[in-house]
UniProtKB/TrEMBL annotation:
Residues 97-313 form the ABC transmembrane type-1 domain. It comes from Myceligenerans indicum. The chain crosses the membrane at residues 40-63, 101-122, 134-156, 297-316. The keyword Transmembrane applies. It is a multi-pass membrane protein. Keywords: Cell membrane, Membrane, Transmembrane, Transmembrane helix, Transport. Residues 1-23, 343-371 are annotated as: Disordered. Belongs to the binding-protein-dependent transport system permease family. This is Sugar ABC transporter permease. Residues 343-365 have a biased composition (Low complexity). The keyword Transmembrane helix applies. It is found in: Cell membrane. Pfam families: BPD_transp_1.
Length: 371
């Protein structure tokens, strides 16, 4: 029998034995740490900036909301939830909340519908497609103060262009700055003018990423443009719809520029008929009350409201996008035949050998129609 002899290292030798783990050098250790740590270092600037500009102001606002914090006197004593109770006890807060929700519904819902319609039209083969696609973005580039000045003239109570057109049709002039609902419609028109084209381009980018094979298959099945839009386009851009709905909700609940610039006073009208919650918060902090504690409480209540409405919009948009109508059952045998032919070609089977190729299916369909 042959004996296995393990060679021992010679005395005085510094080389490790075969069973001894080899120690890594500094450069190898550094390269390992580089592979592990570098991805986190690359994404760390975003989280650092988010912590400085997002989390810290949010936490600091929560601290301010529980103190008697005056604009001139500075930080006062701890009052707990008294600021929240004081804000909830003011009728102006509830009026501003109703105004915000009204303007939000009048702006966000038509905005999303018109934006997705424009995107569907721009996604088709039209002449000068780039010109039209860039043209819908022009209102977004216009400064908010310019938009407010233009629409302020359009919706003027006495000499506005809208009332002049209505007068030509025999309709009495509308008090855009005195009637509550009319002022909400005018402000929502400004919001829709600015943001509809921006959201349309987002929808357009998502539609162009939809595979064109799906539209070809739907055309073979006999689906028209409307059925293709409902059964193919909407389910494929579901995540984009959810994104646009949530961002439109956040922007609609934080509206400030348009109601602030709708008149010269900038306080939401004589009776606060179009004062939004953010405009009310601005008035509490820098207006007559000059109370930072109550303004911080308003900010936190608005933050919670945005979270709740954003979650509800997420659930609703996800349900609508995922529960579309079923695909049409028109000429489905042609599509089945094409799929059978593709499977047969992939398996190396001659065309028509499986008995379910497109030729056999077409003949069967024709025989059934003759019968």
């Amino acid at each position: 029998m042959a004996a296995l002899i393990t060679a021992e290292p010679a005395r005085g030798s510094t080389s490790p034995g075969p069973g001894t783990p080899r120690r890594l050098g500094f450069s190898q250790t550094l390269s390992r740490w580089d592979v592990k740590v570098s991805p986190y270092l690359y994404i760390s600037p975003f989280f650092v900036l988010f912590a400085l500009t997002g989390l810290f102001p949010l936490g600091y606002t929560a601290v301010v909301s529980v103190y008697d914090w005056n604009l001139l006197g500075g930080q006062g004593e701890f009052v707990g939830l008294q600021n929240y109770a004081d804000v909830l006890g003011q009728p102006t807060f509830w009026k501003s909340l109703v105004n915000t929700l009204s303007i939000f519904l009048l702006s966000a819902v038509p905005q999303v519908i018109v934006a997705i319609t424009l995107a569907a039209l721009l996604d088709r083969n039209i002449r000068s497609a780039t010109f039209w696609r860039m043209g819908v973005l022009i209102p977004y580039v216009v400064a908010p103060i310019a938009v407010s000045l233009i629409f302020g003239r359009l919706f003027a109570d006495q000499y506005g262009l809208i009332n002049e057109l209505l007068g030509g049709l025999g309709i009495d002039p509308i008090g855009w700055h005195t009637d509550r609902l009319a002022s909400h419609v005018a402000i929502a028109a400004m919001v829709n003018y600015r943001w509809t084209g921006y959201n349309a381009l987002i929808f357009l980018a998502a539609m162009q990423a939809v595979p064109r094979d799906l539209y070809e298959a739907a055309t073979i099945d006999g689906a028209g443009p409307w059925r293709q839009f409902i059964s193919v386009t909407v389910p494929q851009i579901r995540s984009t719809i959810i994104f646009v709905v949530i961002t439109a909700s956040i922007g609609g609940l934080q509206i400030f520029d348009e109601p602030r610039l709708f008149d010269t006073q900038g306080l939401g009208g004589a009776d606060r008929q179009w004062m939004t919650t953010v405009l009310y918060m601005y008035d509490v902090a820098w207006g007559n009350q000059r109370d930072f504690g109550r303004a911080a409480a308003v900010a936190w209540m608005l933050f919670v409201l945005i979270l709740v409405i954003g979650f509800l919009n997420f659930m609703l948009s996800q349900r609508i996008a995922s529960s579309g109508p079923r695909a049409p059952r028109v000429r489905r045998s042609v599509t089945r035949g094409l799929l059978a032919e593709a499977r047969a070609a992939a398996a190396g089977t001659p065309r028509g050998a499986a008995g379910r190729g497109p030729d056999t299916t077409a003949t069967t369909t024709t025989d059934r129609r003759d019968a």
